Amino acid sequence: MIAIVDYGIGNLRSVEKAFQQVGGDVRLTADPAALAAAQGVVVPGVGAFGACARGLRRGSFEQPLLEAARAGKPLLGICVGMQLLFDSSQEMGEHAGLGLLPGQVLRFPDDMADLAGQRLKVPQIGWNQLWHDGSDPLLAGVPSGSFAYFVHSYYCAAADEADVIAWTDYGINYPSVVRRGNLWGVQFHPEKSQAVGLQILRNFVDLVQRSGAV
């Protein structure tokens, strides 16, 4: 069973339905104790980092998530859920993350432009490409250059480039998929990314099923 953490943040049903579509045995849970029995964990997130971090802590999920990570369970953070894996965010003040990945969450610069010199809007809303070397199992069957759907004003500045398994260009090159051991994070919304997103969720389900070999 894969536990989808319900800590009072929206967009949970669409994540649940997308996992069900690829055959995942998933359950929404607002019970921190349920993470101990789960084989894998998903941390979704929409909105502001600070509100999401407060929701996790108010729901008493922080320690169970850290324990799940230490136990080697596959864990996937989606959008702000990926950002929460890092040390901290500068969104609307300084907010502490889970500290599972070193680095900060920073706002896109205001003066970004595309190759044609056109100013890029913040937030980034829409389709953009994932560039990767094809070596990570989460991205199996997803060609480099595939498009995914993004909605965000902040990006993860990873302190260790070895944690970055895919990059996206939006004025700057920033990490769009990260991994450290049994932890993965995707900055985009796989549940809104059609066939590419479903393939990534299918890959995560497969990783959970064979988690002893991850």
Protein model, in words:
The protein is α/β, with parallel strands linked by helices and 214 residues long. The protein has a single domain, classed as Class I glutamine amidotransferase (GATase) domain (Rossmann fold, 3-Layer(aba) Sandwich). It contains 6 helices and 13 strands.
From the structure above, extract its key features.
single chain; 214 residues; alpha/beta; Rossmann fold; 4-stranded mixed β-sheet; 13 strands; 32% strand; globular
Short description:
This protein is α/β, with parallel strands linked by helices and 214 residues long.
Overall pLDDT metric: 94
Q: CATH superfamily name?
A: Class I glutamine amidotransferase (GATase) domain
Percentage of residues assigned to helices: 10-25%
CATH architecture: 3-Layer(aba) Sandwich
Largest sheet: 7 strands, mixed
Order of helices and strands: EHEHEHHEHEEEEEEEEEH
Our Rg estimate from Cα atoms comes to 16 Å
Q: Distance N terminus to C terminus?
A: 17 Å
Strand percentage lies at: 25-35%
Shape estimate: globular
How would the blueprint of this fold be written?
Blueprint: E1 2-5, H1 12-21, E2 26-29, H2 34-37, E3 40-43, H3 49-58, H4 62-70, E4 75-78, H5 80-83, E5 86-89, E6 95-96, E7 101-107, E8 124-130, E9 146-152, E10 154-158, E11 164-170, E12 172-180, E13 183-186, H6 194-209
